[in-house]
Specification:
Two copies of one chain form a homodimer. By secondary structure, chain A is of the alpha+beta class. Helix content of chain A is about 25%, strand content about 25%. In chain A, the strands form four sheets. Chain A has a five-stranded mixed beta sheet. In chain A, helix 1 packs across helix 6 and helix 4 (about 75-80) crosses helix 5. At the A-B interface, strand 1, strand 9, strand 11 and helix 7 of A face strand 1, strand 9, strand 11 and helix 7 of B.
């Protein structure tokens, strides 16, 4: 955690991403063109790159052509009831290892990765025409590859967060969370540390990777083509953290 | 939403807060002593002040002396089972208008305000000895008063977020969210706007007040006595937003 200032800057100039594109090369180029970065390079701190899942998925070819999808009866019935595209519903159900809620036109599933989210992360916004975009096959591996390539391209110490926009129960609106993490721990664990009066802090394990993802979202306009952000000044220890560790294990889950 | 850089700085030098303290005066003084602020003052943009609920509650006297609490049988049974202080459990149950889950040593309640959170926001960390701290009576009113007084003291355009640290289902670790909001809309609503290909974005209403609260947390060390942060460079339209609007209405809640 930083005790000074953190600066968050959107990375501009990243073009529309197509399958096979060199995403890390494009991010590295955008980083070079961003006036903010020299500050980080001058310091001995690393930087955090937050990348929207959407461009990671597109670069990795995680797309489904809707023309090739034959919807099941279940998908058709649901789609008819709520005026949705049965092929998209079919893709959502295929991404699900468990349907958590299917009610009032909302489909919340647990994806094969373990993420609980609306529509299993399947999204038509900013997708090539006739396609939907899936979540990356393994967001932690995506983050790890991006980190390796960005560190090689820039010579800087870099952590990477692959982020997506999720809803949550009880609170309206969406926030960004971390799907994949590389190069930092997703948590800061205060358990066992003392409060300002010297008494132990209880049950306080902050999901900093999610907070960094949310902070990055503040400069990543969905309508502006800014799919990545650089966060400078956040002090972190390089660590082999995983976004997967942010998923609450089944045995701790009170809301299955 | 900003298209440039956002800078987030912890406000230092705010002393331990006691009931009746002039919190806005102390924040205004810390703001004057923070080197970051001139940047914001030079621009025509406003700044966002994120304040930890804990200090707001303490300044407002939202404390309960545990010596004066007589636990109910229900609180005693639960406390015995999980080795907790029955008086604290009693206070939690008094703050609850509904118990959402009471299982595996975790008590998740809907508070009288409508927030769904562990222990109803009742917290012993950083509390005066023998006391627990409650959530503010009306966090939106708290934010509104702080905003009014901070604008008067600084002459700047200011939005205020009163934030707290909440858990969430399905994901491990805690993140900061906005309980009270003044001076900005808690949402950026992309519904009806077009993606980069000109197609309408669907169901995308970002809870930016929660994202700002999370961003602020990154510099507000729980062990460092930094109970507030200033966020510069986040473009927002002054608006009469309410943190209360972030609470999902009962009829939209699939997880009651």
């Amino acid at each position: 955690m930083s005790t000074g200032s953190i600066r968050i800057t959107g990375l501009r100039g990243i073009p529309e991403i197509k399958p096979g594109d060199d995403l890390s090369g494009l991010i590295a180029a955008a980083l070079r063109d961003t006036p903010a970065v020299p500050v980080a390079a001058e310091s001995d701190r690393g930087i955090v790159i937050v990348v929207a899942q959407k461009v990671v998925s597109k670069a990795e070819g995680c797309l489904v052509k809707l023309d090739e999808v034959v919807p099941s009866t279940r998908a058709q019935v649901w789609a008819n009831q709520y005026h949705k595209d049965a092929r998209v519903v079919e893709v959502v159900l295929r991404e699900a290892k468990r349907v958590v809620r299917m009610d009032r036109s909302v489909v919340i599933v647990e994806t094969r990765h373990g993420f609980v989210c609306a529509n299993g992360g399947v999204d038509a916004s900013n997708a090539p025409p006739g396609n939907v975009v899936l979540l990356p096959e393994d967001p932690d591996s995506s983050a790890r590859r991006l980190r390796r390539d960005l560190e090689a391209a820039t010579g800087m110490q870099i952590a990477v967060i692959v982020s997506d926009t999720f809803g949550r129960p009880w609170r309206r609106g969406l926030t960004n969370v971390a799907l994949g993490v590389a190069g930092l721990s997703p948590f800061i664990d205060y358990r066992g540390q003392a409060d300002t009066r010297g008494r132990p802090l209880q049950a306080t394990m902050m999901a900093v990777a999610d907070e960094l993802a949310s902070a990055g979202e503040l400069v990543m306009g969905k309508t502006l083509g800014i799919p990545a952000a650089v966060i400078e000044g956040f002090r972190f220890q390089p660590a082999e953290g995983l976004g997967r560790d942010l998923i609450r294990p089944e045995e701790e889950d009170l809301f299955r």
